[in-house]
């Protein structure tokens, strides 16, 4: 969390820009090729290195506070199942039955003691362990300890549930968040409640990211809404974590 001194320093920087009609600037002009948004090979690399390689926010604490509450979702075409455990922790699994690969739970949220695949009715405990095999005496002698749901790494911080949608991946959430963890804690998301949910389909994530990252468009695009509350084209830019490149 920013100290009082940090907040005052930010305010002074902002007021100085306001008086001078300036904003934080990059070292020079940056040209962003259209191919950054349209190249299919780049998109495949982004899916592999970003969406399947770094911690993503998969859910809110507020969505699954009680033991047995779950959320099933699809992340970069990977079916994920998040479940609140009896000890209060959250575990994540691939939402894939270990028999024939069918989804164990339909996408959405709910609460359950067991999860049963609709295809052949194999069932799993909240912990992901294989609990039941239909007509087991006719199926064969299998080692059930090896047939639990494949687990993905998850961690809960600041009212957010993070995970990497890849079985066997390593997740160091404290190392990933670094100093920014305090900023997230300051939002007090763990005390919030879900009021409503909207899903945006067919959105280019980089265009959405670019749009929400800058205030250059407030006066022209939102003259009667955001611009009435915020200054246009006036931004402070500070970064956390590792530097990014094109």
Q: List low-pLDDT spans.
A: none
Shape assignment: elongated
Q: How many β strands by DSSP?
A: 11
CATH level-1 class of the largest domain: Mainly Beta
**Strand order within the widest beta sheet:** 5-2-3-4-9
CATH architecture term of the largest domain: 3-layer Sandwich
Distance from N terminus to C terminus (CA atoms, Å) equals 30 Å
Structural class category = alpha+beta
Query: What is the mean predicted local confidence, pLDDT?
Result: 91
Question: What do you see in this structure?
Answer:
The strands form 3 sheets. A 5-stranded antiparallel β-sheet has the order 5-2-3-4-9, with no helix packed on it. It has 2 domains: 11-25 and 33-51 and 200-239, no CATH class; 55-191, Rieske Iron-sulfur Protein (3-layer Sandwich), CATH 2.102.10.10. With 246 residues, the chain is an alpha+beta fold. 25% of the residues lie in helices and 19% in strands.
Descriptive key words:
246 residues, alpha+beta, Rieske Iron-sulfur Protein, 2 domains, five-stranded antiparallel β-sheet, three-stranded antiparallel β-sheet, 25% helix, elongated
Task: Characterize this entry briefly.
This protein is α+β, with helices and mostly antiparallel strands and 246 residues long. The protein has 2 domains: 11-25 and 33-51 and 200-239, no CATH class; 55-191, Rieske Iron-sulfur Protein (3-layer Sandwich), CATH 2.102.10.
Blueprint (SSEs and pairs):
Blueprint: H1 4-20, H2 35-38, H3 40-51, E1 56-60, E2 69-75, E3 78-84, E4 90-94, E5 108-111, E6 114-116, E7 123-125, E8 130-132, H4 136-139, E9 151-152, E10 154-157, E11 160-163, H5 173-177, H6 180-186, H7 205-213, H8 218-221
Antiparallel strand pairs: 1-11, 2-3, 2-5, 3-4, 4-9, 6-7, 7-8, 10-11
């Amino acid at each position: 969390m920013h100290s009082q001194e940090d907040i005052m320093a930010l305010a002074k920087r902002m007021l100085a820009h306001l008086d001078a009609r300036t904003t934080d600037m990059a070292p020079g002009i940056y040209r962003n090729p259209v191919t950054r948004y349209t190249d299919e090979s780049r998109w495949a690399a982004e899916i592999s290195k970003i969406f399947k390689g770094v911690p993503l926010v998969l859910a809110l604490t507020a969505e699954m506070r009680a033991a047995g509450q779950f959320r099933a979702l699809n992340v970069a075409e990977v079916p994920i199942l998040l479940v609140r455990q009896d000890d209060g922790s959250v575990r994540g699994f691939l939402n894939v039955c270990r028999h024939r690969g069918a989804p164990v739970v339909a996408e959405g949220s709910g609460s359950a003691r067991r999860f049963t695949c609709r295809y052949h009715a194999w069932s799993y405990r909240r912990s992901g362990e294989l609990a039941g095999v239909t007509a087991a005496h006719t199926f064969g002698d299998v080692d059930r300890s090896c047939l639990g749901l494949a687990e993905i790494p998850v961690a809960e911080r600041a009212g957010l549930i993070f995970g990497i949608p890849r079985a066997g991946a390593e997740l160091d959430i404290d190392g990933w968040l670094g100093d920014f963890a305090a900023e997230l804690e300051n939002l007090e998301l763990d005390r919030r409640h879900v009021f409503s949910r909207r899903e945006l389909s067919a959105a280019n994530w980089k265009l959405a990211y670019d749009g929400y990252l800058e205030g250059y468009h407030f006066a022209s695009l939102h003259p009667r809404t955001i611009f009435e509350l915020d200054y246009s084209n006036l931004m402070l830019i500070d970064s956390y974590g590792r530097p990014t490149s094109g």
